């Protein structure tokens, strides 16, 4: 589904990568891809190494972006012709983008792409997208300076926003809100990650607390009724 997200790598005080993604941006989609990547220390080491290589990442020119966009459009049209012509039953096959690192379908896979790159990688830094809390539904931050994985959402009220105050377009007290933060040394299993990142873990805890409170109240009511019955019986015996 078209749930937009942003995958960010923060390293040595800078947003080195901020990759826009068009599809399945929820924690059980792109979020899990990020989680699986950071769970492997070898991935993190390779990512740091790549970021430390001068010129490994570079900002493409507008002309380059336009050229790649035209190539991507041609690929999409060819995919449509190949997959939806001459048959009533189709198995959709998508061609690899001409330049994956600047394609909207890459999303969280940018981490693996950069970590394993052997040549310069063009990066279109989209950090300003965090200011669009309507369409940027989730932001995943791999903070290599503090060794944490953070999840932000523009759709959560009452959470604390701690990071993006200096980003253009993010007003004071605005921007996405922190919904979850995990140390690389203590990353959760997938189910817990998804529940926590979406706020479902807190909702579940609130429901459990409410259920426990209702149970205690019910027990007190039962005790009161038993006490009243005992008093009535004592009065009858007298």
Beta content comes to: 15-25%
Q: Any idea how many domains?
A: 2
Average pLDDT number: 81
Instruction: Give the strand line-up of the largest sheet.
Output: 2-1-5-6-7
| Helix/sheet category | alpha/beta
Order of helices and strands: EEHHEHHEEEEHH
* Gyration radius from CA atoms, angstroms: 25 Å
The biggest sheet amounts to: 5 strands, mixed
Q: In terms of per-residue confidence, which ranges show pLDDT below 50 for 5 or more consecutive residues?
A: none
The global form is globular
What share of residues is helical? 40-55%
Please give the alpha-carbon distance between the first and last residues. 74 Å
Summed up, the helix count is 6
- Total number of beta strands: 7
Write the layout of secondary structure elements.
Elements lengths: L4 E7 L2 E8 L5 H12 L2 H12 L4 E2 L3 H22 L26 H6 L5 E2 L15 E6 L4 E6 L23 E7 L6 H8 L2 H38 L1
Parallel strand pairs: 1-5, 3-4
Antiparallel strand pairs: 1-2, 5-6, 6-7
Describe, in plain words, how this protein is organized in 3D.
It is built from 6 helices and 7 strands, in the order ββααβααββββαα. With 238 residues, the protein is α/β, with parallel strands linked by helices. Strands 2-1-5-6-7 form a 5-stranded mixed sheet, with helices on one face. A two-stranded parallel ribbon has the order 3-4. Helix 1 (27-38) crosses helix 5.
